[in-house]
Structure to design on (664 residues):
């Protein structure tokens, strides 16, 4: 089962950590993306996992303990999958769980208003012989569209329990829990296909001797559809030549791929069932939401809307977060109270200047590490995460994806990559993991590279906005250079790595009002996660700097960096900020912030250093995530490109601005 082995669940920016559910009854939640699996997981377990209004929020598996009546059970949340035949990496993750875990109950969560598309997976799940319950979720939205569903009829047609829920309002949860508790499988329902498919399936079934968690019929059907993972699994378990001969022979009889054929026939069954079990009375008027939605996706209206959103984001994060709040914390709270107080206390307790410097003065743990973390980074990431959670909940991101698809196609990506790229502005580490939702390896590599190079994360964006505040010219230079680098490198990478450009298919969910509780919880978990990761690092950095200064190493390294910094026209003090940048991008940017405040960095050198630091290395966390997702060689290769490239861009920008005589 090597291919179906799962990666260990990582602690992500969402802060999800697995709970042990060993020995408990196992309930697996599966279903298409964006149908409410994670909301349902929260309802069943009382644990929060990220919930957003776009497909692909969950890319890893989360386990938690749930209470069903007086019984405890293990609940597993999975990434979305459209079909049992996986295309993307996260679908593969979801299916591996289904095949590898031997569940007691599988709950397929479905979006009721798209029931035709949902039932495909239902039929496939029934085919596997796993104990399935169909949960028709988002019932509120289906009802608003005038849909009525006869649950009893559906239940009879499918021969499995069917329940209806509105997960966000906790409606229908009791019935769902009861249905899970009293689940008893009666018999396997068989949906039949074309005669030639059936006879091939039967022959393969007879030959299959291994032990599988799902029915041999399902395995046979997947083999016929060219499922590589399943083929590898069968090869590991038993003699496969005879089986593969049947597969090849059957395939050769058709001019179209078997997958397509089987899907068509299944669609027929689904249509029949839907016709019998649902009625729809269409509401006449186009809703306001629908109009707004079109406005966001149309190029003519969509781009002004995007600019407006960026402006609003700038006002909230760049002005309110990065200026008003930072000013207050930095100058009032730290400048007037904490720093003088702590310095006084430390100086009175510790007579030696060298030891004092570990805690206070220019680079001390409190005066540098803690101050950066609390006074500069905290207000910025908090406002950013609030704004971002709201955007995620409304469903704007998939619409942005549709809008940007055209540009992205030119650089070898498709609109689906908008989501990881935009998420990069929140946290590049998390976004690197989300590149799993991209279909081809080529796209995943390009997106990872662009995330490492040209997408500054929230903390950095915030500090950069603060650095640029009050100088609109610089802001545009910064945005312009970053966009150009992004497009240029993306374009080059796409040229260098030839490959098929995948078709763009993305589900656009309805616009929804953000749920305040979700925005709050999500912001809270993210800020908490961020702090747990950042705080120790900032303190460690202060200690290392102290040690470095003690041994003279610090000055040596700063001197070393001051050469390339000098080439790009920066004052030698800026080298310190670059050294900080090795620890974390935001730490480096915060270093520049200090220099600007001290009046040491202004005009062209300021904008050059901001661009260079923004392009510069990814932080340690992102780097290790890149290693994990793309492998060592790729990660080191990317770093080897990014490091000199950042300085090169800085160098050219410096020449250009000076040559053109730009005054800033
Ligand atoms: N109106 C309404 N919205 C819902 C309901 N259930 C979930 N949602 C919303 O649907 C969106 C998706 O919910 P998630 O729980 O993240 O969906 P998911 O299935 O885990 O999605 P992926 O992780 O992308 O596979 C969020 O905006 C939820 O607030 C429901 O019953 N009614
Ligand atoms: Mg989810």
């Amino acid at each position: 089962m090597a291919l179906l082995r799962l990666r260990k669940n990582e602690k992500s920016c969402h802060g999800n950590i697995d709970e042990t559910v060993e020995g408990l009854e196992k309930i697996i939640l599966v279903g298409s993306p964006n149908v409410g699996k994670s909301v349902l997981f929260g309802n069943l377990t009382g644990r929060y996992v990220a919930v957003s209004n776009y497909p692909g929020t969950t890319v890893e598996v989360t386990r938690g303990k749930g209470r069903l009546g007086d019984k405890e059970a293990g609940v597993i949340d999975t990434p979305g999958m459209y079909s049992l035949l996986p295309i993307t990496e996260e679908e593969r993750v979801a299916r591996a769980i289904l095949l590898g875990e031997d569940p007691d109950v599988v709950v397929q969560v479905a979006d009721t208003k798209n029931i035709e598309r949902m039932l495909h997976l239902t039929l496939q799940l029934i085919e596997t012989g796993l104990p399935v319950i169909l949960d028709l979720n988002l019932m509120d939205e289906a009802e608003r569209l005038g849909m009525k569903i006869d649950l009893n009829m559906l239940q009879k047609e499918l021969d499995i329990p069917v329940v209806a829920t509105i997960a966000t309002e906790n409606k229908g949860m009791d019935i769902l829990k009861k249905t899970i508790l009293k689940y008893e499988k009666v018999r396997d329902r068989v949906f039949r296909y074309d005669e030639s498919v059936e006879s091939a399936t039967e022959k393969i079934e007879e030959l299959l001797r291994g032990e599988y968690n799902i029915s041999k019929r399902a395995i046979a059907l997947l083999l016929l559809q060219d499922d590589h993972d399943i083929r590898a699994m069968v090869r590991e378990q038993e003699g496969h030549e005879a089986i593969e001969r049947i597969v090849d022979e059957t395939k050769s009889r058709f001019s179209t791929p078997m997958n397509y054929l089987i899907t068509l026939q299944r669609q027929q069954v689904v249509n029949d069932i839907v016709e019998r079990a649902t009625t729809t009375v269409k509401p006449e008027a186009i809703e306001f939401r629908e109009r707004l939605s079109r406005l966001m996706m149309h190029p003519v209206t969509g781009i002004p809307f995007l600019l407006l959103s960026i402006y609003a984001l700038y006002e909230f994060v760049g002005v309110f977060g990065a200026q008003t709040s930072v000013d207050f914390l930095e100058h009032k709270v730290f400048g007037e109270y904490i720093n003088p107080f702590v310095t006084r206390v430390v100086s009175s307790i510790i007579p030696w200047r060298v030891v004092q410097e570990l805690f206070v003065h220019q680079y001390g743990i409190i005066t540098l590490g803690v101050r950066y973390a609390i006074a500069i980074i905290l207000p910025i990431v908090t406002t950013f995460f609030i704004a971002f959670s709201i955007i995620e909940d409304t469903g704007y991101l998939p619409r942005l994806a549709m809008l940007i698809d055209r540009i992205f196609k030119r650089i070898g990506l498709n609109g689906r990559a908008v989501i990881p790229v935009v998420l990069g502005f929140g946290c590049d580490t998390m976004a690197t993991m989300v590149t799993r939702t991209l279909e081809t390896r080529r796209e995943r590599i390009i997106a990872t590279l662009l995330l490492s190079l040209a997408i500054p994360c929230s903390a950095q964006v915030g500090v950069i906005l603060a650095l640029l505040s009050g100088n609109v010219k610089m802001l545009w230079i910064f945005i312009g250079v970053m966009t150009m680098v992004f497009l240029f490198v993306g374009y080059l990478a796409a040229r260098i790595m030839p490959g098929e450009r995948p078709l763009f298919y993305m589900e656009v969910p309805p616009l929804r009002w953000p749920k305040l509780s979700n925005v709050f919880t999500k912001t809270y978990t993210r800020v908490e996660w961020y702090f747990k990761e950042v705080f120790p690092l900032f303190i460690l950095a202060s200690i290392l700097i102290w040690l470095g200064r003690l041994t003279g190493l610090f000055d040596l390294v700063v001197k070393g960096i001051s050469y390339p910094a000098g080439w790009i026209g920066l004052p030698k003090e800026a080298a310190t900020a670059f050294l900080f940048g090795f620890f974390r991008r935001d730490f480096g940017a915060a270093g520049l912030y200090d220099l600007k405040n001290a009046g040491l960095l202004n005009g062209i050198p300021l904008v050059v250093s901001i661009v260079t630091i923004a392009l510069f290395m990814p932080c340690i966390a992102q780097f290790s995530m890149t290693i994990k997702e793309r492998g060592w060689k790729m990660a080191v290769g990317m770093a080897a490109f990014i490091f000199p490239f950042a300085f090169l861009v800085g160098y050219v920008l410096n020449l250009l601005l000076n040559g053109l005589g730009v005054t800033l």
Q: What stands out?
A: The pocket of guanosine-5'-triphosphate (ligand 1) is lined by residues 33-39, 51-53, 55-58, 79-80, 137-138, 140-141, 166-168, 393, 512, 515 (CB under 6 Å). Confidence is low (pLDDT under 50) at residues 1-15. Residues 552 and 609 are 25 Å apart (CA to CA).
